[in-house]
Amino acid sequence: MPNIKKVLMIIVDQLRADCVHGALAEHINMPNIDALRKEAVTFTSHYSVVNPCGPSRASIFTGQYAMNHRSIRNGTPLSNDIPNLAREVRKAGYDPMLYGYSDTTIDPRARHPNDPDLKSEERVLPGFREMLEMRYMESYPWRANLKSKGYDLPEYARFYDSISPDPTRGARPDDPPFFKAEDSDTAFLAGAMIHDLAARNEESWFAVVTFLRPHPPLVAPEPYNKMYNPADLPMPARLKTPEHEADVHPFMAAAVAAPQMSHIVRGIDEAFDMQSDDSLQMLRSIYLGLASEVDTHVGRIISFLKETGQYDDTLIVFMADHGEMLGEHHMWGKQTPYEGAYRVPLIIRDPQNTATHGTKVEAFTESVDVTPTILDLIGRDVPSSMDGVSLMPFLEGKSPEKWRDCVHMELDFGEPDGVTHWQEATHASVEDANLAILREARFKLVHFNAGLPPLLFDLESDPFELNNLANDTAHAPTLLRLTQKLLSHRMKHADRTLANVKITANGVVNFRNN
User: Fold this and answer.
1) What residues act catalytically?
2) Does residue 499 lie within any of the structural domains?
3) Which of 41, 77, 203, 213 is placed for a possible disulfide with 290 were both Cys, Cβ 3.0 to 4.6 Å?
4) How would you class 181 by CB atoms within 10 Å of its CB: exposed for 0-12, middle for 13-18, buried for 19 or more?
5) In this structure, how many other beta carbons lie within 10 angstroms of the beta carbon of residue 125?
6) Is residue 484 domain-resident?
7) What average pLDDT does the segment 192-217 reach?
């Protein structure tokens, strides 16, 4: 029987995998996460199965592909009857505590039409106990904390504006916000969780803490705003011009133009040129500064666990919900089919398996694997509805006989209350404004709905996905093979909640009521 007394999930918003292990890791200082890796298992080929924030977290917490849970965009409700992590760990006797946000949109069938939870896409996953509200669009406790410290608060829409320290010039992106580093949203969230858990040393607990950073707007308090020299950073991989990127595919024509500058930086001089290399590198350096700020406060949390004697009783899962393009392909954000948007870090410290600490797992893993892994480690059966697979064998140093040789990812780019610029560029209806990705070790297929052409990349010779091979007749057999494999994968993983159950004269066969 597992002997895990405490569980801590740390979810970082929009953190790329290569900030932790990879090219950018050589240019960023994250000593606390690096130290955790030495005492944990790092999964180096881990992927979010869907973007953006709401859908990605729906998949993390339900263990389901988006094709099954269908909360496919921010603001799309998650069905109330789908098993999820919070409800399942309650069955193991834990009271799952949420510090931050789950980005869950509530099922309107489960609430009265006047319920205020139906007026926000940022509500709490059913089963969690919200200990601290820290939502991107609200964050009232943080605001109250700033006010109690004497800050003159601007309107909330301007909290993440850069503020020029020099009245003779306008604000630049690398100017700080109005709050100090010790009072930032990241610092406040970590401090509140530590303060609360300090009274729980002698008991078992289950806590999820979700950091907004390094999610845009890209503004960082001192010293994180200028922690890295933009000139020292490598340039992102991209074609020669945005126009060349737009010519790759109709979807890319829209992706190059979005998101707009106001989504990345706020409160700056209108003359700021997002397309210049100097500006690009400045924004990349601020992103890395924000990631380092998160590392600082992850370190506070881990130090707290060690100082209070809880570290070796605690299962720690460190991960990100999705990635960030960071200027690659002349794009920002995560609503693209490229690696930067989907490849994310996953670090798991199982205190019961110290022999594997400090090791790496290169096998493909998916965000839907996280909840089954946690349930397995605390001794709970994994619901049949979940598409993910427990990673416990890897934590025990074993190599499963059969393991996936690819990852499956999805993206919807339409909206039910208006036509998006992606839809305008592709002429796709809201029902067929979507794509599916199958990524093997070498080849990667991006299949578009709405009759749009596919994309095919050879990642062995083209790791930055700059050369689309879909129209190359020499690769036609590969395109066909991957298309068939994608179809088979989706057929195999269609919702299995009751599919393997049968009612017979002798009763119900193969049904497990958790």
Assistant:
1) 53
2) no
3) 213
4) middle
5) 24
6) no
7) 97
